[in-house]
Amino acid sequence: MTPRLRAAATAVAVAVVVDRALRAVVADDPRWTRTNYRRRAVLLTGGPAVAGGAIAGAAVAGGGAGPLLAGGTAALLGLYDDLYGDSHARGLRGHLVALRGGRLTTGMVKLAGLVVGGFAAGRAERRRTFPALADAALVAGSANLGNLFDLRPGRALKVTAAVAALSATAGGRAGAVASSTAAAALATLPADLGEQVMIGDCGANTVGALCGWALAAALRPRGRAACLAVVVGLTLVSERVSFTTVIERTPWLRAWDEWGRT
User: Fold this and answer.
1) Does residue 101 carry a pLDDT above 80?
2) How many beta carbons lie within 10 A of that of residue 213, not counting itself?
3) How large a percentage of the chain has pLDDT more than 90?
4) Rounded to whole angstroms, how far apart are CA atoms 181 and 53?
5) Taking the alpha carbons of 106, 51, 147, 83 in that order, is the dihedral positive or negative?
6) How many CA atoms lie within 13 A of 156 on its CB side?
7) Which residues pair with 197 in a beta bridge?
8) Per-residue 3-state assignment (H helix, E strand, C coil) for the chain
9) Each residue of 181-230: pLDDT tens digit?
10) Confidence of residue 8 (pLDDT cuts 50, 70, 90)
11) Which of 93, 92, 83, 215 minimizes the C-alpha distance to 145?
């Protein structure tokens, strides 16, 4: 078995085991239960499952400290926001308004932490400050964007799997990390589509951050700048335009979005 296949197999195995174990432990804990868009109660166990699988796969892939720092930081901060966060502020604008009003939201704490984690990951990879700052923006922005797509069952995991699969063609450590991220996302997808679990901030932020790291590691400066422009552009657009509305009004996007959903 090649190192890349070993990493993907590890990601799948860890994601499945973590999800099943957590479901048995937290099934009756209200902190781990959320109501989805159809008012169905679902468990947040999908987040630690996909995050644990993707990070374990990255470790087996030999990605080094970078993806472990980026993914681990995103997973911990996302889980913190899932279990203890407030939901009063929505979107980047909402968190900034709250901050101007003297209230520090858990979402703003998470965003700052994602930037710090992304910088540490970039610094570990490049040993230079300016490129590490660019990597931090791409990692944090991708993590936040992953969360913006997590508004319907399976949507964020489908986007992640597609981006990670494209990144996996780069080869090397970045490709191996992307492969394990895609594998973890696909392993968690059936339960997410079936509305048994929800990946929450923990899962969406982690797979987004790892996709961001893989892109940063695989691309040249111009490619990284282009990806960052796309991430920032989509984030700004999301403040005024609903991704869900656009998807539902576009037939082929709606068909892709609803594929496999209960």
Assistant:
1) no
2) 35
3) 69
4) 8
5) negative
6) 33
7) 43
8) CCHHHHHHHHHHHHHHHHHHHHHHHHCCCHHHEEECCCCCEEECCHHHHHHHHHHHHHHHCCCCHHHHHHHHHHHHHHHHHHHHCCCCCCHHHHHHHHHHCCCCCHHHHHHHHHHHHHHHHHHHHHCCHHHHHHHHHHHHHHHHHHHHHCCCCCHHHHHHHHHHHHHHCCCHHHHHHHHHHHHHHHHHHHHHHCCCECCHHHHHHHHHHHHHHHHHHHCCHHHHHHHHHHHHHHHHHHCCCCHHHHHHHCHHHHHHHHCCCC
9) 999 999 999 999 999 999 999 999 999 999 999 999 998 889 999 999 99
10) very high
11) 92
How far is 90 from 184, CA to CA, in rounded Å? 28
Tokens 């995991």 belong to 157
pLDDT tens sequence across 159-186:
999 999 999 888 788 999 999 999 999 9
Q: Sign of torsion, CA 240 145 17 82?
A: negative
For helices 172-193 and 155-168, what crossing angle results, to 10°?
160
Amino acid at 61: A
User: SS in 3 state form for 31-83?
Assistant: HHEEECCCCCEEECCHHHHHHHHHHHHHHHCCCCHHHHHHHHHHHHHHHHHHH
Q: Could you tell me the two tokens for 163?
A: 């981006």
Amino acid at 262: T
Burial 57-69 (b: 16+ CB within 10 A, else e): bbbbbebbebbbb
Please, which pLDDT band fits residue 27 given cuts at 50, 70 and 90?
confident
Q: Supply 202's token pair.
A: 């923990």
